[in-house]
């Protein structure tokens, strides 16, 4: 199943049918793609969204980067709670959204190699770019 993990209904269906799933995404809110793929995302190296930092930060920017990521965990739990409830009812077992995201076979991550900061990727994550570029005449 080719699906977008921002709304995990496709992953719920793939889990129910026991078929592999491929995620195509630009980025998940709260950086869940790092946690779901078990990819290292240290705040001293990977800048958080909307922090306006690069991968070269001084000590105070690293502290700000760490603090920037703390509210994301609470916001994500709140935002994805309806999908966890839906998945638990449909699959008839206790399921969290993170359990669903762990089941992905391949992550196709759209990275703009000019705008995005370098970051580590796991072997099942494939960086693809230029998907939204138009052909030159």
From TrEMBL:
UniProt record similarity statement: Belongs to the UDP-glycosyltransferase family.
Subcellular location: Membrane
Protein name, per record: UDP-glucuronosyltransferase 1-1
Alphabetized SUPFAM superfamilies for the sequence: UDP-Glycosyltransferase/glycogen phosphorylase
Membrane topology: Single-pass membrane protein
Taxonomic lineage of the native organism: Eukaryota, Metazoa, Chordata, Craniata, Vertebrata
UniProt GO molecular function: UDP-glycosyltransferase activity
InterPro entries in alphabetical order: UDP-glycosyltransferase, UDP_glucos_trans
Any matching Pfam family: UDPGT
A GO cellular component entry from the record: membrane
PANTHER family (UniProt xref): EG:EG0003.4 PROTEIN-RELATED, UDP GLUCURONOSYLTRANSFERASE FAMILY 1 MEMBER A1
UniProt entry keywords in alphabetical sequence: Glycosyltransferase, Membrane, Transferase, Transmembrane, Transmembrane helix
Species: Mesitornis unicolor (brown roatelo)
Keyword field contains Acyltransferase: no
């Amino acid at each position: 199943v080719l699906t977008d993990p921002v709304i995990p209904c496709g992953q719920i269906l793939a889990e129910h049918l026991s078929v592999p799933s491929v995620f195509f995404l630009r980025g998940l809110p709260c950086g869940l793609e790092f946690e779901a793929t078990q990819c290292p995302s240290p705040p001293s190296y990977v800048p958080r969204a909307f922090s306006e930092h690069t991968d070269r930060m001084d000590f105070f920017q690293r502290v700000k980067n760490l603090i920037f990521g703390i509210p994301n965990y609470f916001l994500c739990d709140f935002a994805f709670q309806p999908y966890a409830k839906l998945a638990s009812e449909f699959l008839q077992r206790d399921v969290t959204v993170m359990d669903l995201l762990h089941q992905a076979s391949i992550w196709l991550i759209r990275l703009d190699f000019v705008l995005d900061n370098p970051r580590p990727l796991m072997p099942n994550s494939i960086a693809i770019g230029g998907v939204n570029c138009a052909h030159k005449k």
